[in-house]
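User: Here's a protein and a ligand (5-O-phosphono-beta-D-ribofuranosylamine). What would the complex look like?
Assistant: Let me lay out the input and then the predicted complex.
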Amino acid sequence: LSLVVLISGGGSNLRSLLEASEDAEYPARIVAIGADRDADGLALGEEFGIPTFSVPFTSFKDRAAWGDELLAQIEQWKPDLVVLSGLMRLLPPRVVAALSPNLINTHPAYLPEFPGAHGVRDALAAGVTETGASIIVVDNGVDDGPIIAQERVAVHPHDSETSLHDRIKIVERRLLVQAVLDIANGHVNLKEHSNV
Ligand code: GRF
């Protein structure tokens, strides 16, 4: 299964996928890494010998134009699956339509709880004792696509956003590596999940 992985940040979830795919038994290969900015995680392309591309959102007149260029870059690699691994940008409907259902996202909360760009902060602010991590199929909503996998993560009394997010990421990385494996070996059939 060939993957294009899109990031905006440090790419710790991406690193987990890269490390998993170094195992010859793991049936997925990352063919390119993309970002919507000059993301620190693009350096992983250098480290693991994977091509990277950056489509800076701020360089385009609007979201649609950005999305068209991003889609053109993705399609060059003809991936079987596109993984949003910390992409902090909503994809325009045209991009979702072109890629769906072979488009998944990882989110640091127990969806449908705490969707959106601040799921960790929102869980902390809500004072919940547990949150979670979720892997979903991307549709045109905000983190409201079909859930492929999710797991609860405890919130500790003195958690900061960073300490909680770090604890969530440990679970998130495992769920993401497993979700890609399940898709590659047919245990998860994305066509059944799609609702775009
Ligand atoms: C992940 O928790 C992801 O779910 C969220 O942002 C974080 C990205 O972390 N959208 P990293 O770039 O993989 O370290």
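Summary: The pocket of 5-O-phosphono-beta-D-ribofuranosylamine is lined by residues 7, 9-14, 41, 85-86, 106-108, 169, 172 (CB under 6 Å).
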